[in-house]
Amino acid sequence: MSLPxxxxxxxxxxxxxxxxxxxxxxxxxxxxxRNEDPFRFFPERTFENSPIPPGPGYRALVRHDDIWHxxxxxxxxxxxxxxxxGDLPVEINxxxxxxxxxxxxxxxxxxxxxxxxxxPKEITALEESVRVRSASVIDRMFERFPGRECDFVREVAAxxxxxxxxxxxGIPESDEEMIFxxxxxxxxxGDPEYVGSFEDLVRVGGEIFSYALALGEDRxxxxxxxxxxxxxxAVVDGERLTAQExxxxxxxxxxxxxxxxxxxxxxGMRELTLHRDQREIWFNDFEAxxxxxxxxxxxxxxxxxxxxxxxxxxxxxxxxxxxxxxxVVMFYQSGNRDERVFDNPDTFDVRRPAVPAQVxxxxxxxxxxxxxxxxxxxxxxxxxxxxxxVPNLEITSEPAYLQSAFINGIKRMQCAW
Length: 417
Ligand code: HEM
Fold this sequence. Notes:
Blueprint: H1 23-36, E1 41-42, E2 58-61, H2 64-71, E3 77-78, H3 90-97, H4 106-114, H5 120-144, E4 149-151, H6 152-157, H7 159-169, H8 176-187, H9 198-221, H10 227-233, H11 243-256, H12 259-274, H13 276-284, H14 286-301, E5 306-311, E6 315-317, E7 320-322, E8 327-331, H15 332-335, H16 372-389, E9 394-395, E10 400-401, E11 410-412, E12 414-416
Parallel strand pairs: 2-8
Antiparallel strand pairs: 1-2, 3-5, 4-12, 5-8, 6-7, 9-12, 10-11
Helix pairs in contact: 3-11, 5-7, 5-16, 8-9, 9-10, 9-11, 12-14, 12-16, 13-14, 14-16
The structure holds protoporphyrin IX containing FE.
């Protein structure tokens, strides 16, 4: 991918228009920021019809090193004031974002309890599910599309991650479609196709929460063989999850574990279509290259574009003074293309060395993606299934991108085989 020159004066990360520009334009803009103004301040705007007034603005962190520093100094850069750019009351942040919007010790307590659902034992049990679900996604595609073409995002990339979350939570298949639509609404904020108004967002949040509340209470009384039951019944240092905490964690999980993995698989398939040589390298010696190929897909796609932190004291980042209370927004999408760290960062290379690490799952620290190993597994198994059963599958249309400053999503994209 060759990038255009984008002057600083043409970059406003708070302008929704910026996030509708072609990818090359955006990556060109981030390169300009990295080289010319790596701590640039942007005033905030608010999204249409939102009752929330715009906040004081933020500094955009666009270099890999700075994202690394902030992620690993949670005492200086907290999450408790919100991990998205806009300011919401703490209760609303915790309601929608659960532990991603908390600091230790509250965060540590919650993470210790829900981590019971992500132990090697639980993940091993899920692996079988990942294999079975991936196979059934391909079976279903064969059955439903004898003409050998369909929407890759809806029929392949989106299905398996959704089903895995549902399997984890013991959610019946009949409810999967409803969960799918809920997550689209939450993460589609800003894209008119998904969210009509702020009220829609609040309504959907309430619906997911009530659903989860009922699920959590049920598993407390009638434990089943699912991770929801493990979490609801786990006792860590004498503490257990309340149904409310489970409800909020559930919102985080269905959102965090769904659209992200879908986005990685969709971008991955597109890059493997555009770069036949890379596909051949990986698919011809699958086991040997899976580790680096999966990491490269996540780096290249960077499904989560940013998360925010807030300075808890006057400090500095790489010589740049940061005042107490200032917001810093870590643009993972830019850190993952930082030429200071990655050779030819705009080249898709399935053999790219694993070190230096890409920051698509975060850059370490207490909030590092809890589902990273599960997501890696899902991506690897889905592509293994494609390689073995539909080796000629190709993307045949341009992607319809999600209009979002937060998720680098693809809504639709045709494939054929
Ligand atoms: C390719 C797929 C995924 C990507 C790119 C991704 C990315 C991220 C990122 C960037 C963070 C924040 C890291 C930080 O602030 O330091 C995060 C946190 C989180 N992710 Fe993921 N994620 C993915 C898949 C998943 C899956 C499959 C699950 C669960 C089933 C999951 C659950 C979580 C949770 C619970 C957190 C919050 C952790 C905390 O605050 O302590 N993610 N993820």
